[in-house]
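[step 3/7] fold_predict: job queued, chain A
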Amino acid sequence: MLQRKTQTAAFWRDQFELTQEDLDYVHELVLDASSPLTTEQLALRVIGEYQRRETSRMESELSKGKIYQPDKLYEVGQTLVFPAMDFSVGDVTDIRPGENPEYGDFSVIAVKFAGSSKGREFACDLQTPHRLNQANGQGIVEEGALLTSQEIYDLYQDEITESLLYALEEGDRHEEFVQVGDYWLLADMLADVHIGHLNIAEALIEMQARPLSSQELLKEIDVDADISQPMQIISINHALSSDDRFDRVGNGSDHLWYLKRLEPKEALETPPLLRPHHPRYNRALLSVELLQIEWELDDEWGESGIGGDVPSIVPSTSFTLIYPHRRHGTLPLSSRTRSFFPAGSEGRSMVTIIDGRWGKRFTAWVVHSGRYVSGLKEWMEEHNLPVGAQITLERTQNPGEVVIDYRPRRMKREWSRFATAEGSALGITFEMNKIQITCEYDDYLIVSAEDTKELDVQSQRVEKAGISMDELVEQIVPELTKLSPQGTAHAKTVYSAVNMLWRCPPGPVFYALISNRRFRDSGGGFFALEV
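[step 4/7] structure written:
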């Protein structure tokens, strides 16, 4: 079968771009649809339309003459169609014997194409096999062996979606189309939701002090009664999403609206110390022991690759608190904790956290793209939890509620590594001091800072100066080894200390340890300075 353009990767990856004709087609699709269409639905319809047009054009061109095939004999004056030449049409102007012993007896025809002053020659009456030979052109427009619209979309989804979204969002006619979530409709199909309606919505949410659904807001907001309720809901959702005062905090397909000014700062903007760095490193050089330690840490930005998320049937889980999360009162969305909270890839979701000690209930915010849950600062302060504390999460009957607790122990003063920031770009030193601890904790991870704000400033200096992971580890390890009678520092401790200034998963930290000739692997996860 002749290869169609729409069956090739080159077309969809390099040539596909929506034309005015395509936008007319999409406009009619959305206008005639009984409900808004998703980006994928539009893409599938456009792909199908391209295939239909291609078949129609092929059939039209083939009707203009006889299909050229090398094994057939033609006459002067006969009109031929050449599918392999984008269905060019030409007339046979001459015929002569062929001259090539390899092919035996055959003829050569001269063909004159419209718009071209020079003719071209083609073999005919050829007895040897040729790929263009097909009985009566069979297979030229045959559909059975072609990729379907869905198969094409699955193969080239990124390129097709990018071209479609560019045309609808930024093209010459972008004002005609409106996107609400992943659904598309025409701008003139929306109900008029004006600033007065939005002000009422703001007041309603503030009075209720909780997120409200579109349906709840529409009970108090009068929009065009001639428009169907589904379209009213779409209209209010579009208007709210276009106003900076409002934030969609629902889960999945639900639309719940809240006010950004009522959300904690950490939910709206990821703090610098929670933004991960991913320096390149040779992961293959990490030992099995270090990989095991990485798995134990279960950093939400790590790449341990051992197993997946904790299944939703598991009733509880535990993890250890690292400095960036303790500093900002957040929890990590890691493989052990992610399934306990609403799923998502962007935006925010609200959950209710229940204090397992005191039964107190409070609101927390799941920041999907940042991989953390914010709003736990007060709870951590109330229970005086240190870095390295072992935290537990427990499911409830309500998927929007999670019980949080820690493993208690009798209050006792324990040693902790205290970080002090200095003025230079790499200025951080450590000393040992005692702090009161009332929970189980990982002694390798525990680090503290009396002046957390100064440490924040130092973290910004490190970022601005472009300090590398190797430089950080080079400076931090000697500071940590001096605190140990054995003159060693555990890999976990180095990771914990680095993350006081520079958010980074364990892998690059561990690689910086093993690749530095100043440090010697002492076994058991410990490193010492080379003498």
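[step 5/7] annotate
The mean pLDDT is 89.
Residues 39-62 form the longest helix (24 residues).
exit 0
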